[in-house]
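Folded chain entry
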Amino acid sequence: MINSRYQWEQPDIQNQKAINELSETFGISKLIAKILVNRGYDTVETANAFLRPEISALYDPFLLHDMNKAIERLFQAIDNGENIVVYGDYDVDGMTSTAIMTWALELMGANVTYFIPSRFSDGYGPNLDNYQKLAADGMQLLVTVDNGVSGKNEVAWLMSQGIDVIITDHHELPADLPVATAIVHPRHPDGEYPFGGLSGAGVAFKVASALLEEPADEVLDLAALGTVADVMSLTDENRIIVKQGLENLKLDPRPGLSALLAAAGTQLSDIDSSTIGFTIAPRLNSLGRLEDATTGVRLLLMDDDESAKTLAEHVNELNQKRQQLVNDITVAAQAQAQELSADPVLVVAGEGWHEGVLGIVASKLVEQTDKPTIVLTINDNEMKGSGRSVAAFDLFKALDGHRDLMTNFGGHASAAGMTIPTDNLAMIRSVLKDEATKQALDTAQKPKLQIAAEVTASDFTQQNFDDLQVLAPFGEGNPEPLFVVNVDNVDKVKTMSEGKHLRFTAQTAAGVLPIIAFGWGQQADALNGHFSSLQVTGTMSQNTFRGSTTYQLMLKDMAAQGAAILDKRTSRLTKQTFAANATYVFFNKNHYQQLSEYITQPANAVMWHDIDRQTGIQTMVLVDLPESLPQLQELLQNAVPELLVPMFYVKNPVYLQKVPDKPTFAKVFKFVNSFRNIDLNRQLDDAVNHLSIHKLTLQLILKVFLEAKFVIIENGVLNAVPNPAPLNLTETETFQKFMVQRDLERQLIYSTTTELETLLMNLSKQES
């Protein structure tokens, strides 16, 4: 069994009239029209606004709260030559909003500089020490971008010094707002702006547009970059910003971004929203994580191609360093996570882990374990780090009531940062365990996944792929459509990137479908097995290699019924047999006692009857042969692994032994009556040679004779019983057990893989 990571939901909207109308009006396929209707664009008007995001549809920037005040004060500062400082942030939204605001003010002739705080020494948002230093250096007007609304006290100090403050922000508004010259925020409680989902760069773009008295289309690329990087909803005004910004980036990229894309090996023709999320943003973010994000703003604003190339190459190298740091720390963190696998919330900590990448590592562990995770770096008596959570667990709420255990803490439901005294680590873990119980994390539903449609392998065509692009750009609020495909069988399973990722071919009723599965490497063995049913869901992707273009599914999730069965039957056990991380199940107590010492953590050894209704077993290995099929059935109905690996080792298999017939019984009977005091310990091989039969066959016949009281064996010495009572030897318990064992081996050891898979799946079925 492979459990899906998500709860799949497929809308069943029966509005065929709207689907037909949209298809005819816009010349799109019924599939695309259905996706539009399912997403709420069910009229020609709403669909038109979505499909044709034009700059002319942008809202008037002066609808934003305090925009008039902000523009009036900015023009006053420009006219008077005042020293203006744009105060940004160290992430991509902060860099791009700083660049946009600085560009616009410079264009208007302002005397402007910018300041980006350090992640390590300054932290996020308003900082009084920085404000005081800037004031001492002659700042006369502060303009915040992508921050500011949380700085009531800091802003109050500036205002008390006669330094005006214009706040432009998009973050959650506190109950008590700063008293500033202007607060430009799309969700200001006293405002009526039509769209509240702008990024910091989006708000800066609106201020720039207000300054220019027309859409600041020259910086739409930067606004798009900040919007996507900050995972804002790509709907309404953001869709226009990103759509048009990506077009600008493709047609005429600014020197800094052109150089950065070239350093990353990205062609301009390949640019889409994922280019921002997976190529540009991580590289710019590496500056704030490892060095100084001010460099990022400089790269975005520079005009010189050669200087941009040099700086972009440095940024690219820094990103590679960041990737290596993430990989190294993730490996160490994974090892701790395995040791803490019983904890509902993972808290891992290590000496010397780089503070700037801990949030990325936490996200990776959440993805791999489906558990909220906090990753901390230890520095003497203090630990500092970041946490990431899952939809079912409010991380901020869980820790907010325990601030006494932390030196610093902040964040929201899905992400948080904290500083913790090292001595409090055990208490933090205990607190989170209790909070997980309070929030019923163990019974929480899986996050939901919206499925666009069920399709077949034959639907993965150029026509359908091209049709889907009218829905782009994809991202938060407008996800790339996910399709479900029913799979009959899987082959050509290959791992990539040292086992992290997979590629395989799905065999379906409508042909074969190539599948790429990032982050699913641990399922390689399972996919090599066989399921009673398998479904995959993912996006439609285009792959061009050596001039040939094919279409594939980029896996998002999969679900399989019945355990995947991987046939590893063997007649020989070694230490290497038990090298994998698995639950090794024994039916024979002697084998368990002899071999369990070779099975070390995180693997475990268990007798079959000690598994009782266990779920969550990833790999279960059946080491030796059960006594019977009912015994095996009881086990398989009590344990539900993702991967079932039958080995079915038996020391002396009986299936290949010849079944003794009547002449053979008679031959041995005559032999034992012809000799007295046969010492079986010393003379058994002589008897085998004399009778010309297999040793195991002779041993079986002697056991049958002993049960039938045809012979006696005392201290290993064999003698015939004179005149024994007649008996049908094939009805003895010994002979019947031999035949049962022989049939059991036939079904479990000497069957074909297909026959074994069918048998095990039938035994696994729960009674209704």
